[in-house]
Amino acid sequence: MTAINTSISAGDVSEWTSRADAIRPEGRAFIHGRYLPAASGKTFDCINPATGKTIAQVASCATSDVDAAVKSARKAFDTGTWSQCDPSERRKSLIRLADLIEGAREELALLETLDTGKLLRDSLTLDIPGSADVFRFFGEACDKLLDEAVPAGSEALATITREPVGIVGAVVPWNFPLKMAAWKCAPALAAGNSVILKPAEQSPLTAIRIAALAVEAGIPEGVFNVLPGFGPEVGAPIGLHCDIDCVGFTGSTEIGKRFMTYAGRSNMKRIWLECGGKSAFVVFPDCKDLKAAAQAAAAGIFFNQGEVCSATSRLFVHEDITKELTPLLLEAAMAYQPGNPLDQASGMGAMISEEQTQRVLGYIEKGRGEADILIGGHRILQETGGSFIAPTIFNGVSAQAVIATDEIFGPVLSVIPFKTEAEVVAAANSSIYGLGASVWTNDLDRAIRLSRAMHVGSVSINTVDHVDLRTPFGGVKQSGNGRDLSLHAFDKYCDLKTTWIALQGGPV
Ligand code: ADP
Ligand code: MG
Predict the structure, then answer these.
(1) Probe residue for ligand 1, chosen from 227, 255, 272, 274 as the CB with the greatest number of ligand atoms within 8 Å
(2) Whose CB among 213, 361, 387, 411 lies 3.0–4.6 Å from 351's, allowing a Cys bridge?
(3) Full-model pTM
(4) Which ligand 1 atom sits closest to the C-alpha of 175?
(5) Please, what's the b/e burial string for 9-39 (b: 16 or more CB within 10 A of its CB; e: otherwise)?
(6) How large is the average pLDDT for residues 240-254?
């Protein structure tokens, strides 16, 4: 992740705690430009996983709410106030939305942290400003992306134009709630689509909050809708709806596959998936700076509690340097001691939920039978009522072990020794996933060879999981198909129209 150079303003733990106590988050759905309860009136508890306490009641939407949102989204699309307007109007609104998100940075960051347990420091400096940047990028781009005219001779004019697909469902996960929402919604909106955003049930608050900002930014009613609720109750009817044209999904491979079946059972809507990962981090003996490699390896698995689809959860270390690298890795891991997410001194936050904590601890128990534990391996801070896991490193793991093949989605690193380049390439590529890879070497030929050989969407050489607005992010194999970010993201939310016009008369 690229660090954004924005310092934390305002306050210490006690000040943030009183702000947290005073906050009253909006929990209603947002349909046709208004906040509304679910049609059923049902709500669910929104829990702060760092304390175990309920922080809001959130609308539990279902099929009838999806139908209402689709009706409004379609009406907006057909009237053309957004879909057919001069794109410079969309540019202005999306940039205004980015400014409004930045203006509400502290409030949104606090909501994000209370909702997910992630560090407030990261919410303030990465998640919220990073989300604003995404709206600004796609806003800026939307009136500069040109269509194509084809060389068709003097007797024809042929053009290829991009058209918005119509209604886009954005179904997103809980690890970077606002950012993932922005990655889907910003290009979809910029292209002129109407959007129905379904945040994860674990983390609905920032998505709900920005709906009001979208109105303030001038996005017309019906163009942007937010439906909180559970996967089977909101995600499935979105996937199955015959008047939704496309779904952008980030989440588990299991549910990604389910969206493909939803499309097949309904209207063959386009499904763009960004799913699981088990990314490799490979360190060769010719790496010039092992300390930097160790620090990057720790960041690659412990950032955001390891709840990152592109987390480099497999650390392949050449056997000649394991003795040297291991103490550096342990030292680097010390910076990730979990603590109160509102405290700037904490190194990691809380896990998203008790359920996810149990899942990760289950993998750790499996790992004990497969490899040696170097540090961690247990939950901590039980007295807080929250769900915290110590940074955990297994050593001497086989590439075929369960902890080295399953996506754990927690702060658990498998260190796997290797001898040869061919062996490590084969092992790295043996995963069902193909999201990212990080390679540490100072041999230019090897770096290029490896980046070509890795069967993944993104390779980071002498850095880790480098994500940038200008470059696509996404995977191959069971990590999914679509690409978020960069100008290529428009491709997912547009159809190409061919227009062939026969001309009479030939040249003048
Ligand atoms: P995780 O298992 O990490 O929570 P999921 O893939 O289950 O990841 O969740 C990603 C998104 O998919 C969330 O918004 C979630 O509500 C949604 N979802 C979960 N189950 C289903 C389902 N059966 N159908 C449609 N959407 C679902
Ligand atoms: Mg799930």
Answers:
(1) 255
(2) 387
(3) 0.97
(4) 3
(5) eeeebeebeebbeeeebbbbbbbbbeeebbb
(6) 98
